[in-house]
Amino acid sequence: MNLKHYSYALATALSLACATTAAQADDHKQPKESAKEFVDRVEKEGLELAKEVEAAYWVRSTYITGDTGVLAAKAGERSLAFESRVVNQAKQYKGTDMAPDTARAIELMLRGSAAPAPDDAALRSELAQVLTDMEGAYGSGKYCNEAGECRELQELEAVLADSRDYDELLDVWRGWRTVSPAYRDDYQRFVELGNQGAKDAGFANLAEAWKSNYDMTGAEFTIEARRLWDQVKPFYEELHCHVRAKLSEQYGADKVPLDQPIPAHLLGNMWSQTWENIYPIMEPHAGVASLDVTAALKEQGYDELKMVQTAEGFFTSLGLPELPESFYKNSLIKKPRDRNVVCHASAWDLDNGNDPRIKQCVEVTEEQFGTLHHELGHIYYYLMYKDLPPIFKGGAHDGFHEAIGDTIQLSMTPSYLQAKGLIDEVEESPEATLNKQMKLALEKIAFLPFGKMIDEWRWKVFSGEISVDDYNQGWWDLRTEYQGVAAPVERSEADFDAGAKYHIPGNTPYTRYFLSFIMQFQFHKALCEKAGHTGPLHECSIYQNKDAGKALGEMLAMGQSKPWPDAMEALTGQRKMDASAIIDYFAPLNAYLKEQNQGRQCGW
Ligand code: X8Z
Ligand code: ZN
Fold it and tell me: Record-annotated residues binding Zn(2+) 2 (predicted)?
């Protein structure tokens, strides 16, 4: 069910939609319907069904109970039935003569969704159920320790972020991983059902379905993603080497040996996916240019609402529209105290662009402030492609959708933060630059192998290369290979550590984030050029620049109406994804790391 994070055009139209009865649907199967008529009808029916399905999913995600589970699974089942019908009909038009826009629409319909619908109705029902159950189990997961004290994910994450006590970190790291074994069997069943759906839609397996969304073949996409990873890998290895050395100083070489992968619980994040929370350990020049935005937000009495409004203010400063009133009325930005919700942040495109919302259990921290910008990036995509035909509503590819809010964040320079009163003064010195770059690299560079390996694991699981008996071993093999991190305690096949990360039970493809983290620097560079910035890229902010805003808005308004290289070209002049911009951006830090690592044995 594709709609959970943000409903892409096609995903919306296909996987939601259609309250039509079986009889009506059969009527529509008449072969005389032209391709254009077919597309128009699917869009119309899709919108109708979407209303109901989106409402059911929203309520489920913001109010997890058995009852909302029943309603969401039923809605999911209907949307899968619609998708199945649409795909099977769309196949008939493939290769026939039609206008380019219609051909694009048919092509989009035939792409694989995150969980393609099996032809068999009973299997569709089971698929909808298993997805609803897994996400609900994750969203209501709690770790109760031996003393009987129970904590939710966000509380555990806060410990991971702030504590430097090895054993305390280990307790919460292990604790959160007591939640996921409960749905390991569900996941295994999901893999079977998803593969069946993928086959019925014409793919070899679910991995191939997922790779079909990038205007190239699956094999080409695999190579493309690998090419990008190869571009950034040497820089990651320098960062890893230096971080490991510093952690070894902090915790002792017995805990962090200098020739081994880093224990996964010491990197400031539940999944070791971004490492900015250990910045205090890593700060190159102690005390230079204070970057404690969390403290500033708290001191200045920011609350959830003010954080959202401030983030909106960045987008409107570019000349983009204000958020509709309904956004503030209908979004969930504060964690309810009396019920379980899926706290993992998401942005939703309800009512065909008229009722966009975010769902985020906002806390007053810099990290959450960043995530708010990320979510608003999705929302502004929705707003800008609102008037396209429903089937063209979506990111140029899913990495584009993920990259917009993050691109904006790259403009939150010290000068911007000072303008907002969030830091006192802007210190300009090579030392200040290095500190700033270190903090950002701990977020952006550290993430890259994580962003890559999640779907490496799933691709292998879907293709059968990793069997159900090896889920956990296969997971840790990839964690070690890509990230150079290791489980701090022995794990077994009774565990389901992949399932401790939201996007596994939530079934959200993850390569999109890997692509996004690379493309957002490409976008930032292009926007800075539009804004007339000269000088190093890390000093550029497009805040208040209407030329940059116009260029961004124009790309967003294209949605997925054209192959993604067209959208990329419209903004950047390039037709390829490319990691040169992210590497160039961090040139000062790269030099520093190489110097620091001299004489060290890097690698694991
Ligand atoms: O899931 C998200 C967003 C929602 S699309 C909050 N992100 C990934 C994650 O949290 O794992 C953003 C960056 C990576
Ligand atoms: Zn996102």
Answer: 374, 378, 402
What ligand 1 atom has the least distance to the C-alpha of 345?
6
Per the structure, the complete domain to which residue 199 belongs is given by 13-141+179-212
Q: Tens of pLDDT along 565-592?
A: 999 999 999 999 999 999 999 999 999 9
- Rounded Cα gap, residues 122 and 540, in angstroms: 55
360 and 234, same domain (yes or no):
no
Q: Are residues 76 and 116 in the same domain?
A: yes
Residue 371 lies in a domain: yes
346 ligand 1 Cβ < 6 A: yes
Q: Is residue 158 part of a domain?
A: no
**402 annotated among ligand-binding-site residues:** yes
Task: Decide if 6 is inside a domain.
Answer: no
Q: Got the DSSP string for 370-424?
A: HHHHHHHHHHHHHHHTTTS-GGG-S-SSHHHHHHHHHHHHTT--HHHHHHTTSSS
446-496 pLDDT tens trace: 999 999 999 999 999 999 999 999 999 999 999 999 999 999 999 999 999
The answer to whether residue 174 is domain-embedded is no
Whether 324 and 398 share a structural domain: yes
CA distance 323 to 34: 38
Active site residues: 375, 503
Q: How many CB atoms lie within 10 A of CB 272?
A: 24
* Residues 119 and 182: beta-carbon distance below 8 Å: no
Could you tell me if 550 and 525 are in contact, meaning their C-beta atoms sit under 8 angstroms apart? Answer: no
Q: Does one domain contain both 325 and 346? A: yes
Note the pLDDT tens digit of each residue in 489-514.
999 999 999 999 999 999 999 999 99
**Ligand positioned closest to the Cα atom of 503:** 1
d(CA 103, CA 84): 19
The CA distance from 84 to 79, in Å, is 9
Residues 342 and 479 in one domain: no
| 236 half-sphere exposure, CB direction, 13 A CA radius | 27
Residues 56 and 59: their CA atoms lie apart, in Å, by 5
Whether the predicted model's global pTM rises above the 0.90 cut: yes
Write the CA distances from 396 to 10, 108, 127, 348, 558, integer angstroms. Answer: 12, 11, 28, 17, 8
What is the number of structural domains in the chain? 3
